């Protein structure tokens, strides 16, 4: 334990996470499961008890499952999403039946239930210390670490004992601000914020129907009616959510009255006699992001780094991608197995995804939020014609491959396909275990090849693979295969991907994105060497104790 400049004992961590929402907890778990000591500071003494986000996609499901969360127990498949106009005509239809990452394409959930599962998992890890009821009030970042002063808090106001607010000093090698849209950690950085100027007020209603078996058709509906754009979707098991756009001339105060809520729900046959209104609030949907997510030893994730409208359902998903992208990179840097510059790829990679997700959300929002009847009629005619012609729906691809960062690139520094793409997850048998790849084989760098994964790798490179946890595996559909490196591809998920891309090997990162591929086993040493070179291992700076 170190003595701070204030003369108080400073508790020391490898990583200090500020904010204990889903993204903060996911970040903490990512780092702690790799053997690091993590502190989590949260100004609210108790978790927020009401719903907020209600959907996550297949990739977010895979991320949370990798954290040790029982996804099936906290969510249900969303199945479909349909847009209709004010006359009830179908404008487009999304089929969510695919399971690219081994989990439903889109799932609905109740955020307090999910947060409880994440916090239970975090508290089960010996490397995590939860500090609820403490608010970050000062940050001093230096060359070898960061000091954070925290003060007792009731969440929305200071906690005073005999007129005095208790303070503690915490120290960490790195601090990750997961403290929301009004992030204190972001305010301590010099980063600018890009704002697309997209702002609409919506009344959000979370409802618990008394009849859990009531059929809602379609289960997830976007009503593009200029008279009142409305969303009616699953809000998690046993719950429904409605969202109503504020109209011109309508005050937020009037819209947010409980009487207004029930009046707007009347056409849906929802009333106090058959449902409970769990929450009503007006949100201002925005589209903005921090231009840099790292300044020295301070980093941002989740809403502290970006906010987006909900129309693509990518808000929480984006935050979870932040957590998994950052977690393994922090671990490698702390271990001295990668240069600190690796952390700069966090902003590079995540901003690519994030900006695409926000721009897609805004594009969808501008279509949905159209208040002019004539313009809405033109929109409807165009979308119906697109649907009849079989053209892809707008915003069909919410997530794009990386175009830069820690990837296998050609001489022009452009990623070589399939570098930067999200890898699939399928069912496999590994030894005596059968199931989805992550739970059966494990998480980390993985080389999958149809040949001998060790062929051509010298002792030095094999030792390096072992040092960074790069598993060398042979993928096969031979049910009799049972070697120590053999992964039996039960549904030919991986063999099909290799065949489609003309590859014999694929190197996948711990966040499930492809680093690069090899067209023959003879090219595997080059691929492994490329990863090793790009990580550029150097001694990590010591944290003064």
Description:
With 545 residues, the protein is of the alpha+beta class. Helix content is 28%, strand content 28%. The protein is built from 14 helices and 29 strands. The strands form five sheets. Strands 1, 2, 3, 9, 10, 11, 12, 20 and 21 form a nine-stranded mixed beta sheet that branches. β25 (446-449), α12 (459-468) and β26 form a beta-alpha-beta unit. α1 packs parallel to α8 (315-334). It is globular. The N and C termini lie close together (6 Å).
How would you describe the oligomerization state of the chains in this entry?
A: single chain
Number of strands: 29
Q: What is the gyration radius calculated from CA atoms?
A: 25 Å
Number of helices: 14
The unreliable regions are 1-9, 537-545
- The secondary structure category is alpha+beta
Percent of residues in beta strands: 25-35%
Shape: globular
Largest sheet: 9 strands, mixed
Distance between the termini: 6 Å
Mean pLDDT: 93
The helicity comes to: 25-40%
Task: List strands and helices in order, with pairings.
Layout: E1 2-3, E2 9-18, H1 22-32, E3 38-42, E4 55-57, H2 58-66, H3 71-74, E5 75-77, E6 80-85, E7 90-95, E8 106-109, H4 111-124, E9 128-132, E10 134-141, E11 146-152, E12 167-177, H5 184-187, E13 193-195, E14 200-209, E15 221-224, E16 230-234, E17 240-245, H6 252-255, H7 258-265, E18 275-285, E19 288-290, E20 294-295, E21 298-300, E22 306-307, H8 315-334, H9 344-368, H10 373-389, E23 427-430, E24 433-436, H11 437-441, E25 446-449, H12 459-468, E26 471-476, E27 486-489, H13 493-501, E28 505-508, E29 514-518, H14 524-535
Parallel strand pairs: 2-3, 2-12, 3-9, 6-15, 12-21, 25-26, 26-27
Antiparallel strand pairs: 1-2, 4-8, 5-8, 6-7, 10-11, 11-12, 13-19, 14-17, 14-18, 15-16, 16-17, 19-22, 20-21, 23-24, 23-27, 25-28, 28-29
């Amino acid at each position: 334990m170190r003595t701070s400049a204030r003369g108080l004992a400073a508790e020391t961590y490898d990583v200090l996470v500020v904010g204990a929402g889903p993204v903060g907890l996911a970040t903490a778990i990512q780092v702690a499961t790799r053997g690091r000591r993590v502190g989590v500071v949260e100004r609210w003494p108790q978790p927020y008890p009401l719903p907020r986000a209600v959907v996550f996609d297949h990739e977010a499901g895979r991320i949370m499952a990798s954290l040790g969360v029982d996804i099936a127990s906290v969510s249900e498949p969303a199945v479909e999403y349909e847009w209709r106009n004010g006359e009830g005509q179908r404008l487009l239809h999304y089929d969510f039946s695919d399971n690219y990452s081994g989990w439903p394409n889109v799932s609905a959930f109740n955020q307090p239930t999910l947060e409880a599962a994440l916090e239970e998992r975090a508290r089960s890890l010996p490397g995590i210390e939860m500090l609820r009821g403490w608010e970050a009030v000062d940050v001093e970042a230096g060359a070898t670490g960061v000091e954070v002063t925290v003060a007792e808090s009731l969440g929305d106001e200071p906690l005073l004992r005999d007129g005095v607010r208790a303070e503690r000093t915490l120290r960490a090698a790195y601090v990750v601000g997961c403290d929301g849209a009004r992030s204190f950690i972001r305010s301590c950085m010099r980063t600018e914020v890009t704002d697309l100027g997209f702002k609409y007020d919506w009344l959000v209603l979370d409802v618990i129907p008394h009849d859990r078996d009531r059929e809602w058709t379609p289960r997830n509906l976007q009503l593009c009616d200029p008279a009142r754009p409305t969303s009616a979707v699953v809000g998690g098991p046993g719950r429904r959510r409605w969202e109503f756009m504020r109209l011109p001339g309508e005050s937020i105060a009037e819209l947010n009255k409980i009487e207004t809520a029930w009046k707007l729900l009347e056409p849906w046959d929802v009333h106090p006699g058959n449902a409970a209104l769990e929450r009503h609030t007006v949100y201002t949907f925005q589209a903005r992001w921090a231009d840099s997510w790292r300044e020295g030893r301070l980093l941002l994730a989740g809403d502290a780094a970006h906010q987006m409208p909900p129309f693509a359902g990518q808000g929480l998903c984006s935050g979870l991608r932040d957590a998994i992208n950052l977690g393994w990179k922090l671990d490698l840097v702390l271990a001295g197995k990668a240069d600190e510059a690796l952390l700069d790829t966090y902003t590079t990679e995540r901003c690519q995804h994030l900006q695409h997700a926000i721009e897609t959300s805004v594009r969808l929002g501008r279509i949905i939020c159209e208040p002019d009847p004539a313009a809405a009629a033109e929109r409807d005619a165009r979308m119906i014609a697109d649907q009849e012609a079989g053209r892809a729906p707008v915003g069909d691809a919410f997530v794009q491959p990386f175009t830069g960062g820690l990837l296998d690139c050609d001489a022009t520094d452009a990623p070589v396909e399939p570098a930067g793409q999200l890898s699939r997850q399928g069912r496999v048998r590994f030894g005596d275990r059968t199931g989805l790849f992550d739970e059966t084989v494990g998480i980390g760098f993985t080389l999958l090849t149809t040949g001998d994964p060790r062929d051509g790798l010298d002792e030095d490179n094999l030792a390096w693979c072992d040092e960074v946890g790069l598993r060398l595996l042979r993928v096969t559909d031979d049910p009799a295969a049972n070697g120590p490196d053999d992964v039996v591809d039960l549904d030919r998920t991986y063999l099909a991907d290799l065949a489609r891309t003309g590859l014999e090997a694929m190197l996948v990162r711990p966040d499930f994105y492809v680093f690069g591929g090899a067209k023959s086993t003879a090219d595997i040493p080059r691929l492994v060497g490329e990863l090793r070179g790009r990580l550029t291992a150097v001694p990590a700076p010591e944290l003064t104790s």
